[in-house]
Structures are given as structure tokens and as C-alpha cells.
């Protein structure tokens, strides 16, 4: 049985990934980790404090738990990275380098989460190809491009079995995103249900690639479980699910909550969003290791609202929305 370490397990992706991995590999075989003690009520045990910028901290945990696989999710996202560029470089680059060095020594199987942030203003915005211009305008994007090249280098030079995905904005109801440009697509659901109004930090026509968490989990497990012969790209694969604009998301939410209103007050994150593609071509991932998404905008919105609705409202809606329950799940 595999022994798996998840770095950044308290983040948006990590929280759901740990649950999914424990479901498949057993609770005690998946070690959640982060740089600080988790909240007392967090169901994260077994959990270890790991500072990814400290190679000794990574080596110790790998030896202590006889780890053979690392899902390396620890990182600072795009918006926060612009506020703390030095820290973003340190955590995202030195953290990855320490994991790859450990992988070289201990023959680890590694997953690295890259991002659509590797692309920039000169990248084609529509059907962005797998191999194209990568000229990111954020420190986060620069660390992801560099990270992808490091992964490819360690795979080619040292035979490290590292696999990676360029993830789009991830939408989930279990834990909030932290410090990203695509965070509006999660915040909006909470605001719609709690106050009925939302102030969106990007313009209405801003269209970005997005993915629902169950699809993201399926993508991460799918690439890691694929036969080695199928993994032909060792930098990072484009993966896509849906693309929609902020105003299309609002309109879809309004089909469930007609009184919901959204106003727009773009801030510094608008420029980041404008530098990213709108629609990604992920045909290589589909052809090489069988990637397929399941959720479109309508099913994401139905599922998110169902999951986040206060339980009193859920009870009264149970009967009329019973047909929607078929798409309501955290992990499939
Ligand atoms: C962010 O907005 O920074 C992330 C990403 C697209 O990588 N969600």
C-alpha cells in the first residue's frame, strides 16, 4: 500500500484531496501536512507540520512515515503572490526543489500542481495549446513556469516520476480558496446565499477556465494512477472543464436565486485575470491518459447551492429539488 504525503493539505485543494486519498488508500496511509498546527476541530489526523522551504523538514517526514508518494500542493497563489513576491518565490520554488531533491534520493512519485497562470498576455486566449507562449506577468506564474521546467528536468535528468497539471480556477464548497484571482467564483456562492448580493472584483465579461472540485480530484488521481507509458509530458498538462464569464455565473445563480444581485468593482486582480487565457485546449491530457470532466456550469451551480444552503432551507427545498440531488456530491 502506498504511503502518501500531501503538502499544503489545509488549502482549498488539499482539504478535499486528503479526504479522497484516504478513501482510496486508507486513513493512516495519507499524511496531511502544513506549516502550522491545524484547527483543533479539523479532521486531518495523521497530520505533520512540514516547512517545505526547509529540506530537512521534508526529509524527516519522508523517513518517519516511509513516504513513497508526494502530492505537492503547498504554494502561494496569484493575488497573494503579488503582495508577497519574495515569499511566493521562496515557498513555490524552494519548496518544489526540496520535494524534487527528496524524490531523487528516495525514488518518490510526485504530483505538482501547476496553473493556467503559466500563460501571459501574448499567449493565445482561445483554445490555448499545450505548447505555446508562456510569459506570465505575476510572480506566481513565474514560479509555476519555473516549477514545470524543474519537474521536466528532474524527470529527464534523474528519472523522477513527477506528474503535473495546469489547473484552472477551482470551485468547491468544503473549504475556501485563499489568495487567488479566481476566488470570486467561490465567494459569490457564499454571498448569494448569505446576503443576496456580491461585489465582484473582476469585470462582468471576464471569462476564465474553471473546474469543479470533484473533477479536479478526478484529474489529480487520474494522472497519478495512469500507467507511466501514458505520461508523455513531464512539464505539466493542460486540463480544462468549463469556461464562463463572471456575468454568466451570476445569471446561472439567478436561475436558482432570482433576487440575487451582483455589482462589479474591479481591483488589481482584473489585470491578472486579463493576462490569462479564456479557454484551454486540453486534448493532450484527454488523448494521453484519458482525462474527462463531468461538471458544466449548470451542474456546478446546482451542486454548490445545494451543498451550501443552510440546513433549514435545505429541508424545505428537499422535495422540490430532489431531482438535483443526483449531482450533489463532494467526491465521485
Ligand atoms: C489563482 O487564482 O491564483 C489560482 C490559479 C488559477 O492558479 N486559482
From TrEMBL:
Pfam families: Epimerase (PF01370)
InterPro entries in the record: Epimerase_deHydtase, NAD(P)-bd_dom_sf, NAD(P)_epim/dehydratase
Record SUPFAM superfamilies: NAD(P)-binding Rossmann-fold domains
Protein name: NAD-dependent epimerase/dehydratase family protein
Domain of life of the native organism: Bacteria
GO molecular function: L-threonine 3-dehydrogenase activity
Gene3D superfamilies xref list: NAD(P)-binding Rossmann-like Domain (3.40.50.720)
Similarity comment: Belongs to the NAD(P)-dependent epimerase/dehydratase family.
Domain NAD-dependent epimerase/dehydratase: 4-239
Region (Disordered): 312-332
Organism (species): Oscillatoriales cyanobacterium SpSt-418
Listed Polar residues bias regions: 323-332
Protein's GO biological process: L-threonine catabolic process
Amino acid at each position: 500500500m502506498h504511503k502518501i504525503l500531501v503538502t499544503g493539505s489545509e488549502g482549498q485543494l488539499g482539504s478535499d484531496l486528503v479526504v479522497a486519498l484516504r478513501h482510496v488508500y486508507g486513513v493512516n496511509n495519507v499524511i496531511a501536512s502544513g506549516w502550522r498546527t491545524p484547527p483543533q476541530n479539523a479532521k486531518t489526523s495523521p497530520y505533520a507540520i512540514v516547512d517545505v522551504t526547509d529540506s530537512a523538514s521534508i526529509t524527516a517526514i519522508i523517513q518517519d512515515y516511509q513516504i513513497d508518494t508526494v502530492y505537492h500542493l503547498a504554494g502561494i497563489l496569484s493575488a497573494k503572490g503579488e503582495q508577497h513576491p519574495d515569499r511566493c518565490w521562496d515557498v513555490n520554488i524552494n519548496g518544489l526543489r526540496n520535494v524534487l531533491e527528496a524524490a531523487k534520493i528516495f525514488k518518490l512519485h510526485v504530483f505538482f500542481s501547476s496553473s493556467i497562470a503559466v500563460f501571459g498576455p501574448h499567449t493565445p486566449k482561445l483554445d490555448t495549446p499545450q505548447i505555446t507562449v508562456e510569459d506570465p506577468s505575476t510572480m506566481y506564474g513565474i514560479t509555476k513556469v519555473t516549477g514545470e521546467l524543474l519537474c521536466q528536468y528532474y524527470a529527464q535528468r534523474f528519472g523522477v516520476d513527477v506528474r503535473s497539471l495546469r489547473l484552472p480556477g477551482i470551485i468547491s464548497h468544503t473549504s475556501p480558496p485563499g489568495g487567488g484571482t479566481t476566488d470570486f467564483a467561490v465567494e459569490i456562492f457564499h454571498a448569494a446565499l448569505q446576503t443576496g448580493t456580491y461585489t465582484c472584483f473582476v469585470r462582468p465579461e471576464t471569462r476564465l477556465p474553471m473546474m469543479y472540485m470533484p473533477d479536479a480530484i478526478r484529474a489529480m488521481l487520474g494522472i497519478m494512477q495512469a500507467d507511466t507509458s501514458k505520461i508523455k509530458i513531464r512539464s505539466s498538462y493542460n486540463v480544462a472543464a468549463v469556461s464562463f464569464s463572471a456575468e454568466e455565473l451570476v445569471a446561472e445563480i439567478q436561475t436558482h436565486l432570482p433576487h440575487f444581485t451582483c455589482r462589479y468593482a474591479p481591483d488589481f486582480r482584473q489585470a491578472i485575470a486579463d493576462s490569462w487565457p479564456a479557454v484551454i485546449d486540453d486534448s493532450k491530457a484527454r488523448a494521453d491518459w484519458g482525462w474527462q470532466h463531468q461538471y458544466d456550469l449548470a451542474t456546478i451551480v446546482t451542486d454548490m447551492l445545494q451543498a451550501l444552503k443552510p440546513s433549514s432551507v435545505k429541508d424545505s427545498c428537499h422535495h422540490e429539488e430532489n431531482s438535483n440531488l443526483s449531482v450533489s456530491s463532494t467526491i465521485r
